[in-house]
Sequence to fold (356 residues):
Amino acid sequence: MLGFSVYLNKVLEKEEFNQIEKYAKAGFKGVFTSINLPEDDPKNLLHNLAELGQVCEANNLHLTLDISSESMKRLNLSLDPEGFESLTDLHVDMLRIDDGITNQQIAEVSKKLKLALNASTIVESDVDELIQYGADFDNLEAWHNYYPRVNTGLSNDWFYQKNQWLKQKGFTVMAFIPGDTNLRGPVHAGLPTLEDDRYNNPLSSAINMSRFDVDKVFLGDPVIKDETLHQFEEYYQNNVILLHANILKNAPSYITKVMHQRADVARDVVRLREGRPWNTVMIPPKNTVKRERGAITLDNSISGRYQGELQLLKRDLPVDKTVNVIGQISDDDIDLLDNCGANQAIKICETEDGVS
Fold:
């Protein structure tokens, strides 16, 4: 499941509504928001939350609200039955539990409403207490935090081990990935769960989450580039990795068609299986220069039976007189080369500033 974040510090305007609709059309299913910032005016928060709930309802989006005992008090909300009713009136589908709410309260609420617990802090004794108090574990998930400050994101190893334990306990696991434009303040350094994801391509980070036993991936930052959103749509709806690139004008015309990684995955390069079968001409040596990570290469006539071999480089390689460099994947998309597994469909999209 894919989700994104919308924050309530200002009134939602046409730009935000349009953005929410674009996410929904691209296949995103969940929305995360929070009422935990003490500087936000309670009346404005409730008004903005009501508007967000309505647009989520209209777009069939599942709304999760981050709460704490302190924020609930400030907004005059409660976890009693009347409180449930006021939240469901706002189209809130799930509560993400932060500080100040006891396991006994969680257990009681779980019998009536879906809850997301703090995945990073829950321990064995918490699970034991929830069982003791009769919690409905079908309504409990485990959601990690995001980490705005550089160098404070989680370690990959610790994250994986924690998720393995959570899965053993039967929890659905969620984590955040950062955006790639207009990063949320005040730090403006992305909102990832993993520190390694802070400056990665968001789609690459999302794909990688499957390696860590993560079931749901949410964008922590409220915005990604339109090109990145299109990449999400292509991958999750059509199973195609879209790569933007500068392409030489004398590159073969089929370079922008959908191609596929070979079934046998090479260490250093992505080998496109259509390269040699689709080539019908003699390819003279040209631009046989040093091949940098992200280079698009075409084997020339000197390579003999490998003539026409198309590759995308996952690491820097030296000059080879049998290999022409015919393009370069954009820096923003290079991370995605490591996500090209066996038989992965790939489409190279030429950028407007193509090279000659």
Q: What stands out?
A: The mean pLDDT is 94. The radius of gyration is 24 Å. The chain has two domains: 2-239, 241-350. The first helix runs from residue 14 to 25.
